[in-house]
Design goal:
Blueprint lengths: L1 H20 L3 E6 L7 H16 L3 E6 L2 H10 L6 E2 L2 E2 L3 H25 L4 E5 L6 E5 L2 H7 L15 E7 L2 H8 L3 E5 L1 E3 L5 E4 L1 H12 L3 E6 L14 E3 H10 L6 H13 L4 E6 L5 H7 L6 E4 L1
Parallel strand pairs: 1-2, 1-11, 2-8, 5-8, 7-10, 11-13, 12-14
Antiparallel strand pairs: 3-4, 6-7, 9-10, 13-14
Helix pairs in contact: 3-4, 7-9
């Protein structure tokens, strides 16, 4: 009986958060080990479906870096990165579109549907959801308050950034109780296809939807300071200073920029959380024991 009472208490403790977030949008950037380990994949799907059933509107933007690397390796192509961004030539772009827009996107949709959701897979091309433009080294560096590294302007290849998001399709899907699952691929006005970092797409989508929260799942506990200590809360100024000093670098840079984009667009809070922790999403949304790093404007 005590175990049953404890379970009931957990539900009661979650009630204030369910009440607060009912009808609100939460954008989740899904990536890392949470996408590759079976138990974590199942847990993620259950968390998202539960959020939907208690009245929240989850929107998922997924990555797929490890899966892309595996396919590139099978094809004898070498992955290349600069400043945390995947350098994308034409052969790599073909692999990215096949893996993200095809295999991974549909796997996530299928898993959510198996657990009772109504999920729909999209790319930025669908319904004019995302308009892309080329990402240059200079614009990327400036967005992170860092100096360009002297590389050519087109050094990222077919890597894009979000020029605009048209949220009409996402809002319509939410009205009809669907969960959108977005692959970070989009085209420009001329129809050229670009690979966009999933973190950046998540930040832009969260801003366009005026989401309550942006949750960025990763494989670390959050941001660490220069001494390697976990930081639970960061202001915009603190984060900018850590980027300039190199404390925040490499793969964490796109996550930081995504959080800044979301906050600039009116999102209330952004969180970088450890997706390896079982039920990390529920712990962040429905408890006061915050995990990871919370970014404040």
């Amino acid at each position: 009986m005590n175990k049953l009472i404890k379970k009931a208490n957990v539900l009661v403790e979650a009630l204030p958060y369910i009440r607060t977030f009912a009808g609100k949008t939460v954008v989740i950037k899904y990536g890392g080990k949470a996408m590759t380990e079976e138990a974590l994949k199942e847990g993620f799907a259950l968390d998202v479906v539960l959020m939907k059933y208690v009245g929240l509107n989850p929107v998922i933007v997924h990555g797929g870096g490890p899966q892309i690397d595996q396919m590139l390796s099978r094809l004898g192509l070498e992955p290349k990165f600069r400043q945390g961004v995947r350098v994308t030539d034409r052969p790599t772009m073909e692999v990215v579109e096949m893996v993200l827009g095809g295999k991974i996107n549909k796997e996530i949709v299928t898993l959510l549907n198996q657990h009772g959701a109504k999920a729909v897979g999209l790319t930025g091309k669908d319904g004019g959801l995302i308009l892309a433009k080329p990402l240059t080294v200079r614009s990327w560096s400036e967005s992170l308050y860092a100096e360009p590294d002297g590389s050519p302007e087109d050094d990222f290849g077919l890597v894009g950034e979000v020029q605009s998001v048209n949220p009409h399709l996402l809002l319509k899907l939410q009205q009809d109780h669907f969960i959108p699952v977005i692959a970070p691929i989009a085209s420009d006005r001329s129809g050229h296809t670009y690979n966009i970092n999933a973190d950046l797409v998540a930040g832009a989508v969260a801003a366009a939807l005026k989401a309550e929260k942006l949750l960025v799942l990763t494989d670390v506990k959050g941001i660490r300071d220069a001494k390697g200590r976990h930081v639970s809360t960061l202001s915009r100024k603190d984060m900018q200073r850590m980027v300039k000093k190199g404390t925040i670098s490499d793969g964490m840079l796109p996550k930081v920029r995504a959080c800044l984009m979301a906050l600039d667009g009116g999102v209330r809070k952004a969180h970088i959380i450890d997706g390896r922790m079982p039920h990390a999403i529920l712990l962040e949304v429905f408890t006061d024991k915050g995990i990871g790093t919370e970014i404040l404007s």
